[in-house]
Task: inverse folding
C-alpha cells in the first residue's frame, strides 16, 4: 500500500498541482500586500478616507473604560471591497498567464488525410464482376 501511495504521489500531475498551489498561495500574499499597501491607500487618498475602515454601523456600541467600543454591530464593506480587488487582480493575472501559455503552444497540424482508395461502389463492382466469372 505504501508503494502504491508513493507511485500516486509522485505522478507528474499531482506534483504540478502541489507546486501550483504553493505558488498561488505566495502570489495571493503578494497581491494582498499590493492591494492593501498601494491600491487601498491611493483610493483612500481620492476619497479622503482609510479604505479598510469603511463600514456601515447597524447598531451603535458603547465605549468601555479602556476606550474600546463594545456591542457595535457593523458591516465592514471596506474589507469586502479590498478582498474583491484582490480577487479581480488575481483573476486578471491568471487570465493573462493562461492566454500567454495558450499563445505560446504550438498549433497542432491537422492530421493528414487518409489516402484515397477504392470507393465502396468500386469494391462492390469488383465483387460482382468476380462472381460473374
Result:
Amino acid at each position: 500500500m505504501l508503494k502504491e501511495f508513493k507511485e500516486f504521489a509522485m505522478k507528474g500531475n499531482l506534483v504540478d498541482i502541489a507546486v501550483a498551489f504553493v505558488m498561488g498561495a505566495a502570489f495571493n500574499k503578494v497581491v494582498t500586500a499590493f492591494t492593501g499597501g498601494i491600491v487601498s491607500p491611493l483610493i483612500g487618498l481620492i476619497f479622503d478616507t482609510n479604505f479598510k475602515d469603511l463600514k456601515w454601523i447597524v447598531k451603535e456600541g458603547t465605549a468601555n473604560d479602556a476606550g474600546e467600543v463594545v456591542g457595535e454591530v457593523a458591516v465592514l464593506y471596506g474589507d469586502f471591497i479590498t478582498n474583491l480587488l484582490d480577487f479581480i487582480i488575481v483573476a486578471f493575472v491568471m487570465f493573462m498567464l493562461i492566454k500567454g501559455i495558450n499563445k505560446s503552444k504550438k498549433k497542432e497540424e491537422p492530421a493528414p488525410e487518409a489516402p484515397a482508395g477504392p470507393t465502396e461502389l468500386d469494391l462492390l463492382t469488383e465483387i460482382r464482376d468476380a462472381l460473374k466469372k
